[in-house]
C-alpha cells in the first residue's frame, strides 16, 4: 500500500477503484459478525470457499465477508449479488446450489426468506419487512464492505468527507456543520455533539487535546457499537480525523472492551492501513495536519463507560467517576482537554459530512438529527440490529420491524437504555423515539438496547435483574449508590419471595428517589430507573406480589410454586392428582380434585384449562400434560361418594341466610361453600331448571346432561334451597330480599343477552341471537336452524351454535364468519377443530356489512373481506376492510354471537352501580358492589367467561360473604399457595420420556357424531392416562421432597459408632 | 474572586474554594463523614449534598467536591436536601449502627427508624484512611479493591504492607470504628432504647457485644450516667 501524499492522490485512488468495480459480477456475501459466527457463519464460509475451489469458480464468483448486517435472528445467512437475494439460516449442504444459482443469475426459490407469519416469499433482500421498514444509513455500509479491506471502504465513498474537510481547511466550518446537523451523543445522554466540539475547540491548544471513542459497550443485550467497530472500523477513524481537525486535537484513543476481540482485531488492522496510506500520523495527506489514534483495552467494568471513570481508566487508575465540573473538555486525560464520543456518534460524523448537515438533520426530528441503531432483543420475532430515524415510534420498531411477539403472549413493555433505562409499557408504544420523549416517559435512550418483554416477563423480576447487575457494577465510591443499589436489590428480592409488605414498596420508592438525587455520576443517577419506571407503570404487579402473593408472569418461584396450581383460578392441585393418577391412586386423585372444585366432571370436559398453558412441560419445549383429560379420566372412574366435604361449622338455626341470584356455576359454587362454612342460602333461578349456562349454553354433545344433573344435585344439600322460575327484576327485588331476612345477596345472573350487529334487518325471521338459539334448543328442544346456516362470531358460543345447528334436522350447511384469522378466534382450539371435522365451514377475515332479506325473511348476508392492520391496544391486529371485496352469501338462518352482555337494565334502580360496558360494578378484590351486603361475580361482572372463572368467582364470593357476615375485614392479604403434600414420584425413564407425546382423548368419528347429541369425546384408557401422568415434570417436588439432610436416626448412629 | 449565593446570602470566595468551605465560612452547618480538612475532597458519603440550580434543573451535588462558581445559588437545607440526607443516614445506620458518629448524626437529623435489614459493618468506605495514608503520611499503604457491593479496603494482596509505619492515622480519622461503646457490664450498659428500635439498632445476642453509644438514646431519650 503506497502512502498518499496529497488529497489529489486519494481522489485518484478512489477513481481507479470505482472504475474497476463490476456490479454485475456474481458475488456471494456472507455475514461474519460475532452473532452469525456463533450461529455457524465460519463453517458456512469454509463450505463456500471449499466449493468455489473445488468447482474451479474462484475467478467467476466473488466472495465478500462482511461485518454484522443486523438480522441476527436469521444467521448464518448469505446474500447474493447482483440479485440481492437473501437466504436465511443456510444449511451447509445447500451451498453448491446457492453458488450455482448466483452463477446462473437465478434464485433458489425454496431457500429464499419467507415471512414466518404470512409465509410470503421475498426475492429481494430489500423487500423483507425487517429491512424495508428501516432506514439504514450506518448499517448499510456493513453489507457493502469487507472490514479488513480499506479499498472497499474507499470505493464506497470512504474518506471522502475527510477530503472535503481537509480541502476547505476551515475549522469553524467543521464544528458549525456538526452543530447544524443536530447530531447528539449516541452513548445515551444525548449531549449535542457540535456543542461539545465547540467547547473543546475553544480550549487552548498548546497543551494538546484528546479525542476519545467510547467503545465500552456494557449494557446487557446491546451490541450496536461492536457491530460498527467490527463491520466498518474505518468510519470511526474517519470520524475521529474530522473531529480532530475541527477541534485541533492531536491524540485519539479508542477505549474498547477486551471482550470484543474481533472488534479490536479489525480496528487494529484498519489503524495500520490508515497509517500506511498516510491517513493517520504526521502530515496527513500532505496537509500538515497530524493526528494519531491508539487503542486502550478496558477490563470490562460497566462504570468505565462513564466519561470521568473512562478517563481515569485510560490514565491507568481505578475506574472511578469524579466530580464534574471540571468537565473533561476542560480537564481530561492527564489534565488535558478531552472530548469523548460514542462509537456510533463517530460513525455518524463522516456520514453527515457526506450527505450534508441539513439533510442529516432532516432525517430525524427537531433537535434530534439522523438515525439511531438499536439492538432489538427479547421476546420478539426478528432479533437483531435495526436502524431508524429519530422520531420513529416504539410501536413501529416493535411490530413492523421486529415482527411482533414470537408466540401467543402479548408484548407488555420495552426496556430501553440498559440498566440505566426504564420500561415503557405497550400502552405508550406511540411514543416517538428521541432523547427527550424517552426521558419524559421515565426511561433513557441509552446506547440503544431495546429489550422486548411479554406477559411471561415479571416486571419485579426485571427490576431485580437490573439491580443485581448494578449492585455489582456500581464503582462503590458513592455510599448511596453502593448501598442503595444493594438495598433496592434486597427489597426487590423480598418482594419476589413474598416477604415484603406494602410499606416496603414505599421504602423502595423513597430509596430509589434518594439514590437518584444523591449520587455523583450518571450510573448512580440513573440506577433507580429500572425500579422507578416499573413502579410507575406496573405498580399493580408489585402490589400483587406483595399483597396477593401472586406473580402473574409465573416467574417468581417462591410465589408460583407449581405453575399448574398457580394458573388454576380455583387453586386446584393439578400436580397432585396427576401424581396420584401416575401411581394408580384414583380415589386420592378424586379427592384432590373435588377439594378445590365442586364441578369436577364438568371441568373434566369443558374447562379452558389455564393450567395446561402454564405447564412447564409445555413451556420448556415439549407438549403440556393433558391435565383436563386426566381429570375427566379420574371422574369417570371414581364414585363421588368417596369425597366427604369438610364442614367447618354446622348451620345454626336462625343464623343468617344468603340469597344467591342465579344457579349457574358461580351461584351453585357459592351456595355449596357457604353451606360448608355454616351458612344457609336460597338460590333463585330465572329459568325452569338450575345450571345457568352449563345447561342452556353448552351443548349436550360436549357435556352430557345426566353427568351435569348429578353434579348439580350433589351440591343442593339441606342448607341450600332452590327456587326456579324466579327472576330478579321480574319476580323479586334486592330490597325485598334484604327485607325478607336475607343478610347478604350474591348476584350471579350471568350474561344472557346477545349483542346486536347493528345492521338493518337484524330483526327479520331467520336471524337469531346465539343465546336465544342455544337456549331454545337446550332447554326447550326447539330446532330453529334450517337450510344454509351462517354463524357470525368466533367465540365459544359461536362454535357451540354451529355444532348445535349442524345436528338439527333440515340443515344443509353451516358456515362460521369471523373477522380476524383463525389463530385469533377466542374459542377453544379443540372445539373449533371438532366442528370443522364435522363439516362446519369457516370463513375468516369476513365482516358482515348488510343483511339481505326477501319477502320479510332472511335471504343472506353481504360480507367484506378484511386484512390485518395496525396492532390495537389489546395487542391484536385490527381487521381493516378491503373496499371492493364485498361478497354475498345466501343463507336461510343467521345466528349472531359477537359477544354477550348481562341483562341488567334494572340494576340501577336497585341501587347497584353498572359500568359503562353494561356489567355490574364491583371491587375485584372483594366482589362487593356499590351496595352494602350485595356481592357480584361471574359473567355478570366479567362478560362471557369460562366455567372455571365462574366457579372461582363463586368460591371467592362464599369467602367474602362469610367475612361480611362475621363482620371481618373483606380485604385480607393472600398467602402463596405452594405444594405441601409429598407424593412419591413414578416417572417415565429418560428414554420413554423422550419418546412420550401428549395423549389426546379418543373421539367418536365425525361421520358418526354429526347427527346426534351423544358425547363426542371419550375417556382416556388406563394405559394412556398412566403414561400421560408419568410424563409430568413434577414441579411440586422442589417444595415437597423431604430434605436429604434429614438423615434417619439409624444411619447417624452408624456413622458415630 | 467568585461571588455565589448560599441560602440567600451572598459570599465572595477565592477561585478553587468548594461550596462546603464557602457555606461553612458563612456558618451554615453541613454534616460530613468523608471530608476532613487537609485531605483532598472525595465525595463518597453523600451526606454533604446541597441543592443548586433553579426549577427543573435544580439538582443535588456533594458540596465537598463542587467548586464555587460565579452566580451559583446554593440551598444547604432545603426540603429536598433534608429528605436525601435522612435517607443517607438511615442507610448508614442500617449498615454501621455501632458508630457513635453516625448515631449522633442520625439523632441530630431526627432519624427515628431504620427500615432495612440490619447489618453490622465496620467500614462505610468513606476513604478518609486511604487519603490520610497517601496525602499526610505519604505511605500509600492501603487502598480500595473491587467494585460495587464487593468493594473493600486493604493492603495489596492483603499482605502486611512494607510501607506502613503503624502510625495509626487511619484509625484516628475513621468515623465508623472510633470510640465504640465501652460498657461491657449489662446493668450499666443497657438503657434498652437501642433494643426497642424497630428493627433493633443492635441485633446481637449477648449484651457484651452491644456497643451502643447513643447518649441520649434516640428512642427512649434516657441520658446515661
Return the domain count of chain B: 3
Query: What's the helix count of chain A?
Result: 46
Please give the count of helices of chain B: 7
Return residue spans of chain B where pLDDT drops below 50 for at least 5 consecutive residues: 178-225
CATH architecture of the largest domain in chain A: 3-Layer(aba) Sandwich
- In angstroms, what separates the terminal alpha carbons of chain B? 51 Å
The unreliable regions of chain A are 1049-1057
CATH class term of the largest domain in chain B: Alpha Beta
Overall mean confidence score, pLDDT of chain B: 80
- Count the domains of chain A: 6
How many individual β-strands of chain B? Answer: 7
Largest interface: A-B, 35 and 38 residues
Please name the CATH topology of the largest domain in chain A: Rossmann fold
CA(first)-CA(last) distance of chain A: 83 Å
Share of β-strand residues of chain B = 5-15%
Tell me the layout of helices and strands.
The complex is a heterodimer of chains A (1057) and B (225).
Chain A: H1 7-20, E1 27-31, H2 34-38, H3 41-54, E2 62-66, E3 78-81, E4 85-87, H4 95-103, H5 129-132, H6 139-144, H7 150-155, H8 160-168, H9 171-180, H10 193-202, E5 210-215, H11 224-231, H12 233-247, E6 251-257, H13 261-276, E7 292-298, H14 307-314, E8 338-342, H15 343-355, H16 357-363, E9 371-378, E10 384-389, H17 394-401, E11 411-416, E12 422-425, H18 435-440, E13 449-454, H19 459-473, H20 479-496, H21 502-518, H22 522-527, H23 529-537, H24 539-548, H25 557-560, H26 563-567, H27 574-582, H28 586-596, H29 600-606, H30 610-614, H31 616-619, H32 627-637, E14 657-661, H33 665-676, E15 680-684, H34 693-696, H35 705-715, E16 720-723, H36 734-739, E17 742-747, E18 753-754, E19 767-769, H37 770-780, E20 787-792, H38 796-806, E21 811-817, H39 829-838, E22 841-843, E23 846-854, E24 857-871, E25 877-881, E26 887-890, E27 893-896, E28 900-901, E29 934-936, H40 939-942, H41 947-965, H42 990-995, H43 1006-1009, H44 1022-1030, H45 1037-1040, H46 1049-1056
Parallel strand pairs in A: 1-2, 5-6, 5-8, 6-7, 9-13, 14-15, 14-17, 15-16, 17-29, 19-27, 20-21, 20-27, 21-22
Antiparallel strand pairs in A: 1-3, 3-4, 9-10, 11-12, 11-13, 18-28, 23-24, 24-25, 24-26
Helix pairs in contact in A: 8-12, 8-15, 9-10, 9-12, 11-12, 11-13, 12-15, 15-16, 19-20, 20-21, 21-23, 27-28, 27-32, 27-44, 28-32, 29-32, 32-44, 33-41, 37-38, 38-39
Chain B: E1 2-6, E2 9-13, H1 19-26, E3 49-52, E4 59-62, E5 73-75, H2 79-95, H3 100-108, H4 128-136, E6 143-145, E7 152-154, H5 169-173, H6 186-189, H7 193-196
Parallel strand pairs in B: 1-5
Antiparallel strand pairs in B: 1-2, 3-4, 3-5, 6-7
Helix pairs in contact in B: 2-3
